[in-house]
Design goal:
The chain has 186 residues and is of the alpha+beta class. The chain folds into 2 domains: 6-115, no CATH class; 119-185, no CATH class. The protein has 6 helices and 5 strands. The protein has helices spanning 6-9, 47-64, 84-117, 120-138, 143-154, 172-185, and strands at 12-18, 35-37, 43-45, 70-78, 81-82. Helix 4 packs across helix 6 and helix 5 packs across helix 6 (172-185).
Length: 186
């Protein structure tokens, strides 16, 4: 959080366990909240750790990161621990948020490096490569047409143009992107 570009490099994922303070004597509680023994030997919440954590969550992190970099989740504590249904929902949402947030940060980093570190030609080549990958991810089926094109492109004795034509939305760009990727791999 001390870097000047924290918003480009940092994501924060916070899980709040609702009702946890009402179940301090559950056997699993110490895995989810800092506990310590009082002078009388009673198990209590470690107030120093709790205060530091709350300060981090409520003050320090929001002062350094924009809200789009902070993800919060709520799960409910029951007498049997964390509710399984809530936990499954939370994990699915966390996975989705984590994937998209990290992907977005990587994409932004790549784009900024392209803009700062490359010449215009290199930038254009990389943009085409990114577009190609996007189209390939959308490509499904049409193996027969794909094989015909690949065979044509790989034929060293063929000197004629190869033309892909069809109605708008037919998938010509995706097909050519897939061919470009597959031919490069061969």
């Amino acid at each position: 959080l001390t870097t000047s570009d924290a918003n480009q490099r940092t994501l924060c994922f916070l899980r709040e366990i609702e009702n946890i303070h009402e179940h301090l004597f559950d056997s699993k509680i110490s895995k989810y909240i800092d506990m310590c023994h009082s002078k009388t030997g009673e198990l209590i919440i470690d107030s120093e750790a709790e205060n530091l954590l709350q300060n981090l969550k409520k003050s320090r992190i929001p002062s350094k990161l924009q809200s789009s970099n902070i993800f919060s989740y709520q799960v409910h504590w029951t007498s049997n621990g964390i509710n399984r249904h809530d936990h499954a929902t939370y994990i699915a949402q966390f996975n989705n948020d984590f994937y998209h947030a990290v992907k977005q940060q990587i994409d932004q980093c790549v784009k900024s490096r392209i803009l700062f570190d490359s010449d215009p030609l290199q930038h254009e080549i990389l943009e085409h490569a990114i577009q190609c990958k996007t189209y390939v991810n959308k490509f499904h089926g049409r193996i027969d047409i794909l094989n015909q094109f690949k065979e044509y492109v790989m034929n060293e004795n063929e000197n004629r143009f190869c033309i892909a034509y069809g109605d708008s939305g037919f998938g010509k760009t995706s097909l050519l992107a897939k061919i470009a990727i597959d031919v490069c791999i061969v």
